[in-house]
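stage 2 :: seqdesign
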């Protein structure tokens, strides 16, 4: 009855005098003003207050909504994006969702470029918002033609009416946080904030929030949480599995003078913390949120009781259900340890005789590979680019002794580069997965590449597994391990 009284027969409000309370004109008006919550159970040994900024409560589900609307507003104002235009952007997913929300409201087409480490949920979410998504390999340098940066640049050139917000270089990105996120934190903490922690990606959040908070209280410490291997913490930017933060180049939106400390966090610690927060606090957060929480936890152990740490949680764990919160995925990448006996037991039993990971680069001559196989008594060898510690994404293929012998009769083999003759990569297994799974996989593969914390650690063969099983004190237990599948 109330609805009938308020609406005419057309379904529209009757008259001009009708007013609603707290009704937004569009979803874009709901961006920002996210709440703070105390983190008491996940950081139980903290000596000070630890508060989390819940950016997953933005309408697009992440902190990137803030920069997305600000960059599009600026592009429209400056005449860079015209009606009916196309937004082209390389993204880890969250910026794309924010841009897609704006595009849906204002009638723009979207093309987003992502790497192949981005979760399937994120790709599906972008497409659900009507965007076109192009997926590129993650284990390539930024200047290579098939990198996601180069692909986005090519699409820009090929698409009429295209505009790229270019979040890595667009200074509206940090400005959005200087004008919104920073003032919110200052107001919400009553000016008591002493430390701000956030992941380092484009650097926009850290730089913008840092500029505002330091203008209010210069002593505020701005702390970047960074994946191990990213350039911000001294790495080369080689692949890691945490999504959305870390880089392999220095974005112009990262203002290092605003950052007082950088804390490097491993994939293992990030994922473990994300799961811990979700279990203990009831907050489903992503891997990058886990990275930030690890850094905040490290700070909190050494802070004074009067300090107030605010950690920004950039998005929800709902975008990572097939990865961080999937036990099978976590185990296969070496992040979880199952009941014994497992692959870790095999490696530890052979730690004196099992060599550390030996491999060759794709450009190395086959003669070098043959020499390494001979010197170490190996019949197979991984092929990977980069130096140790390798990332799983850097493994490109493998070499097998029998295949090399067969090819040797076909002509000059030893001088050729490895990449010309390599086979597909060895099958992989997580260091915590059961030996029974290794037995099953070794029926189809001559050896297995063992992943530990997402990184290749060793190669094991049937001989290694059988040697361990034969040394088990209980022969019945050994037989059960082999026959478990």
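stage 2 :: out
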């Amino acid at each position: 009855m109330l609805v009938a009284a308020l609406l005419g027969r057309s379904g529209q409000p009757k008259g001009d005098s009708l007013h609603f309370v707290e009704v937004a004109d569009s979803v874009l008006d709901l961006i920002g003003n996210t709440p703070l919550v105390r983190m008491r159970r996940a950081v139980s040994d903290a000596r000070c207050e630890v508060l989390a900024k819940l950016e997953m409560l933005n309408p697009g589900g992440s902190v990137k909504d803030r920069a997305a609307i600000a960059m599009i507003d600026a592009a429209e104002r400056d005449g860079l994006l015209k009606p009916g235009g196309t937004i082209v952007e390389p993204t880890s997913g969250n910026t794309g969702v924010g841009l897609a929300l704006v595009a849906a409201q204002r009638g723009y087409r979207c093309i987003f470029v992502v790497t192949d480490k981005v979760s399937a949920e994120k790709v599906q979410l972008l497409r659900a918002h009507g965007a076109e998504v192009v997926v590129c390999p993650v284990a390539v340098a930024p200047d290579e033609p098939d990198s996601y940066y180069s692909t986005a640049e090519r699409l820009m050139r090929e698409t009429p009416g295209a505009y790229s917000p270019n979040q890595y270089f667009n200074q509206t990105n940090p400005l959005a946080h200087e004008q919104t996120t920073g003032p919110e934190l200052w107001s919400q903490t009553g000016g008591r904030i002493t430390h701000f922690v956030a992941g380092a990606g484009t650097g926009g959040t850290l730089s913008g929030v840092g500029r505002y908070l330091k203008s209010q209280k210069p002593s505020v410490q701005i702390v970047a949480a960074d994946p191990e291997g990213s350039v911000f913490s001294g790495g080369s930017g080689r692949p890691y599995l945490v999504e959305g933060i870390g880089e392999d180049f220095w974005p112009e939106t990262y203002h290092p003078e605003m950052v007082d400390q950088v804390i490097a966090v491993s994939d293992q610690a990030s994922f473990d913390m994300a799961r811990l927060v979700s279990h203990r606090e009831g907050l489903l957060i992503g891997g990058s949120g886990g990275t930030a929480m690890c850094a905040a936890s490290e700070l909190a152990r050494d802070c004074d009781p009067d300090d107030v740490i605010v950690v920004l949680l950039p998005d929800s764990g709902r975008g990572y259900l097939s990865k961080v919160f999937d036990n099978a995925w976590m185990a296969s990448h070496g992040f979880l340890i199952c009941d014994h006996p497992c692959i870790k037991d095999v490696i530890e039993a052979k730690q004196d005789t099992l060599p550390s990971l030996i491999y060759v680069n794709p450009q190395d001559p086959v003669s070098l590979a043959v020499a390494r196989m001979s010197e170490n008594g190996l019949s197979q060898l991984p092929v990977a680019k980069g130096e140790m510690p390798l990332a799983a994404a850097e493994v490109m293929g493998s070499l097998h002794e029998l295949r090399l012998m067969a090819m040797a009769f076909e002509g000059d083999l030893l001088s050729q580069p490895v990449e010309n003759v390599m086979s597909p990569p060895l099958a992989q297994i997580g260091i915590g997965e059961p030996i029974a799974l290794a037995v099953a996989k070794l029926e189809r593969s001559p050896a297995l590449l063992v992943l530990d914390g997402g990184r290749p650690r060793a190669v094991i063969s049937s001989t290694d597994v059988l040697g361990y099983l034969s040394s088990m004190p209980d022969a019945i237990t050994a037989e059960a391990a082999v026959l478990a599948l």
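stage 3 :: structure notes
- The chain has three domains: 27-60+174-320, 64-163, 334-483.
- The radius of gyration is 26 Å.
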